[in-house]
């Protein structure tokens, strides 16, 4: 799987009860970003630059249907795959999406959790799709 | 101009590429070095269909926003990439429809199969 990079502030916000990472209480969302994430300093969704909210992409992205459960001392998080379909033009009117960022949309400040690097810019042209595959497990914590 | 004069000229020599940085101190994606590496060459889906997880197909087959040709991934070609060279398995799959459209899947979770193939 692509390299999962957690934002430094995420764990602090988890301990400060700003992010709820257990169960389905909070709504988590995935967004497509066009400039380099800064995991040591980025903190909230306003710190990243998304593709435009057009042509099949909504600003602040899509709900990933986050859930997490506990077994013993381990929390396992899951999410449902997200599919963006470009309509009327390039998804987000963009040719420079590269990173995918997940944030907690229920948290008051829309706090960032993690990001992945696609490894190159990508364009989703009209009638094309971009799917995020969260696999069997989004993350585990123990 | 002799060689010494050339060397003394501050406008001759190695010039670094300017890097544009946004007001937030970040670098735009199109200026960041690519790390993606081809893992498996483009091939007809039919030749590797047994390797491809069913959900890859279903995401296209059930998407009513797609053209009818795009909803038949069994007729597409497929290519696999690694988002960076040291990924242990491909994490990017691109389906190519005969109409020219591409359908990308970026595998960011864990625990699923990551098919790969080697054909001449």
Strand order of the largest sheet of chain A: 1-8-7-2-3
- Total DSSP helices of chain B: 3
- As a percent range, the share of strand residues of chain A is 35-45%
H-E string of chain A: EHEEEEEEEEE
| Main beta sheet of chain A | 5 strands, antiparallel
Radius of gyration of chain B: 22 Å
Unreliable spans of chain A:
none
Strand content of chain B: 15-25%
CA gyration radius of chain A, whole angstroms: 15 Å
Give the rounded overall mean pLDDT of chain A.
Answer: 96
Question: Describe it for me?
Answer:
The complex is a heterodimer of chains A (142) and B (120). Chain A is mainly beta and 142 residues long. Chain A has one domain. Chain A has one helix spanning 8-15; strands at residues 5-6, 28-33, 62-63, 67-71, 74-78, 82-85, 97-104, 111-122, 129-135, 139-141. In chain A, the strands form three sheets. A five-stranded antiparallel β-sheet of chain A has the order 1-8-7-2-3. Chain A has a three-stranded antiparallel β-sheet with strand order 4-5-10, with no helix packed on it. Chain A has a two-stranded antiparallel sheet with strand order 6-9. In chain A, strand 4 and strand 5 form a beta hairpin. The longest helix of chain A has 8 residues, at 8-15. Chain A is globular, with a radius of gyration of 15 Å. The model of chain A has no long low-confidence stretch (mean pLDDT 96). Chain B is of the alpha+beta class and 120 residues long. Chain B has a domain at 34-106. Helix content of chain B is 15%, strand content 23%. Chain B contains three helices and four strands, in the order H-E-H-H-E-E-E. Chain B has helices at residues 3-8, 45-48, 54-61, and strands spanning 37-44, 77-82, 92-96, 102-110. In chain B, strands 1-2-3-4 form a four-stranded antiparallel β-sheet. The radius of gyration of chain B is 22 Å and the shape is globular. The chains are: A mainly beta (142), B alpha+beta (120). Chains A and B meet through strand 7, strand 8 and strand 9 of A and helix 3 and strand 4 of B. Strand 9 of chain A pairs parallel with strand 4 of chain B.
